[in-house]
Write a structure and sequence with these properties.
Largest sheet: 4 strands, parallel
Shape: globular
Bound molecules: zinc ion
Radius of gyration: 18 Å
CATH topology: Rossmann fold
Strand content: 15-25%
Number of strands: 8
Strand order of the largest sheet: 3-8-7-4
Helix content: 25-40%
Structural class: alpha/beta
Length: 245
């Protein structure tokens, strides 16, 4: 309590800073990211890939397979994935601040972008529960939180958030691997934690960034093997292979 009180006093005297630009937040900024920075984010519009959620640029329309997921013939084990936008610019900076900069409150605007998309595309109505892609125990300990769980918790769809998966080992050093290698690398990496709870349920799997989709697909397949009826996906940003250094 003393610590909270001390932090409250410090907040009174020090300006808060934007988690992305580092500039002091203005009075009308809700934070943690300055409104001026949020406005520059390139969010998905009416043109997107239903398979991976990636924005396609004006005029392309809604498609079922974009260039980024053309290699993934058998899909990601999901019915449809929603992404707030591409892993670039402001969205990339926000994901990096959330994942590596300790800025856990950056999850809030990311969730706020995903929620209306999930409602508009009719996914919010179809799901029974939300499942974050877990980190390994070691990575959770190092980071102090799971960014996917923070995004899942902020969706506010009125559905329970279930930590239904356990990650047996970290797999986040995949940048140099081919798609086939990534798939082998993630095989068996998840275990269903509460099969009884997810049996017959339609679930929304949530993560911050999806690149090859190998990890995401393995998580979705683990849920389905454990008895889930169907899995949808929500990710903050869709990266193409080679973008996740
Ligand atoms: Zn796609």
């Amino acid at each position: 309590m003393l610590k909270a009180l001390a932090e409250g006093v410090i907040d009174l005297f020090l300006p808060r800073h934007c988690a992305v630009s580092g500039r002091p937040l203005l009075d009308d900024d809700a934070g943690p990211v300055a409104a001026e920075v949020l406005r520059r984010a390139e969010l998905v519009g009416a043109d997107y890939c239903t398979r991976c959620g990636a924005p396609q640029g004006a005029g392309v329309g809604v498609i079922g397979e974009c260039l980024s997921c053309r290699e993934v013939r058998d899909g990601f084990g999901t019915r449809e994935i929603v992404a707030a936008g591409r892993y670039a610019g402001v969205l990339e900076d926000m994901c990096l601040a959330l994942k590596f900069g300790g800025a856990r409150e950056v999850a809030r605007p990311l969730s706020a972008w995903l929620t209306p998309l999930l409602i508009e595309r009719g996914i919010a109505d179809k799901i029974d529960a939300v499942v974050p892609v877990p980190l390994s125990a070691l990575r959770t300990l190092q980071r102090g939180y799971n960014q996917a769980e923070l995004i899942a918790g902020g969706l506010g769809l009125g559905k329970p958030v279930l930590n239904a998966l356990r990650r047996m080992r970290p797999t986040d050093r995949q940048a140099m691997l081919s798609l086939a290698q990534r798939r082998r690398n993630v095989e068996g990496v998840f275990k269903a934690r509460k099969p009884a709870v997810i049996e017959g349920k339609t679930l929304l799997l949530v993560d911050d960034v999806m690149t090859s989709g190998a990890t995401f697909a393995e998580a979705a397949r683990t849920l389905k093997r454990a008895g889930a009826k169907a899995v949808y996906g929500a990710i903050a940003a869709r990266a193409a292979l080679g973008e996740d250094s």
